[in-house]
Amino acid sequence: MRDLTIGEAARQSGVKVNTIRFYEDRGLLPEAPRTESGRRLYDGAAVGRLAFIRHARDLGFPLEDIADLLALQGQPGTSCAPADSLARRHLASVEARIAALTALKGELTRMIACDGSDTAHCRVIESLADHALCAGDHARLAEVAAVPGVSD
Predict the structure, then answer these.
(1) Of the candidates 33, 38, 73, which has an alpha carbon nearest to the alpha carbon of residue 53?
(2) Residue by residue, what is the 3-state secondary structure of 89-147?
(3) What's the rounded Cα separation, in Å, for the pair 41 and 8?
């Protein structure tokens, strides 16, 4: 594969140009060699690495774990136990978020079960105004259920 510009590497890997620069800054992708005019050039290995990172991100792996997985990928013939351990830990985190989301769904379902007459008797407004009306303590559940990388 010939050397690709950053735009071509982005198209082939499905990773945005700014994200490629971010991955270089974070050390997930080696800094690309540059032409005399300063344009970055990427080879097939770099595009493959970008696709690996994108797939891992699509599965929700944190960047720190992706760095570890990339390091393991560069050590063929070694035990895959560390990669398995990272994936198992990530699965446990996903399962905890699913449980938290299920609990939050239950609370919201209970909260919206009202006759819809007027706001003075609205169960949603009442529940939000008085936490004691809720079935459980869901403040911690919201933290666990939060999607990584998304904040207020």
Answers:
(1) 73
(2) HHHHHHHHHHHHHHHHHHHHHHHHCCCCCCHHHCHHHHHHHCHHHCCCCCHHHHHHHCC
(3) 9
**Separation CA 63–CA 27 (nearest Å):** 10
Residue 77's identity, in one-letter code, is G
Distances (CA, A) of 74 to 69, 70, 89, 98, 149: 9, 6, 21, 33, 27
DSSP string, 29-88: SPPPPB-TT--B-B-HHHHHHHHHHHHHHHTT--HHHHHHHHHHHTSTTS-SHHHHHHHH
- How far, in Å, CA of 116 to CA of 127, rounded? 14
Instruction: Please give the structure tokens belonging to residue 6.
Output: 């950053």
Three-state SS for 4? strand
**Distance separating alpha carbons of residues 44 and 79, to the nearest angstrom:** 26
Digit-coded pLDDT (tens) for 17-75: 999 999 999 999 999 999 899 999 999 999 999 999 999 999 999 999 999 999 999 89
Helix (H) or strand (E) holding 18: helix 17-26
Which tokens is 124 given?
A: 């949603």
pTM of the model: 0.78
